[in-house]
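Example record

One chain of 117 residues, shown exactly as stored in the release files.
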Amino acid sequence: MKYMALIYTDPATMNPPGSPDFGKMMDGYKNANETYRRDGVYVAGDALQAATTATTVRIRNGKTETMDGPFAETKEQLAGFYILDCANLDDAVRYAALIPGAAHGAVEIRPIMVFDR
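Predicted structure tokens for this chain:
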């Protein structure tokens, strides 16, 4: 089953690029990526630009409306994601625990919906 691991972080607590802590964090992501690929569970994953770059799209009364920035005002914002192909939720949790963002933010794991074709 495929799971999406949504990585949420508070931008105010992020380590700035170039700092020693940023390097350690990136090493953690490198290790996670290597483990996912070695174990054959990696499907996709990437970091996202800041929530301030987001555009929210809605259709209201047949018209497309857009709004700059994220829809929700929260401290923790979606910063990245992985899609992992795991045997079960326990495995997905074990792999999500390798994501460095889990140590200072949160990682939400959700099964990807499969529709009959």
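Notes: The chain has one domain: 2-111.
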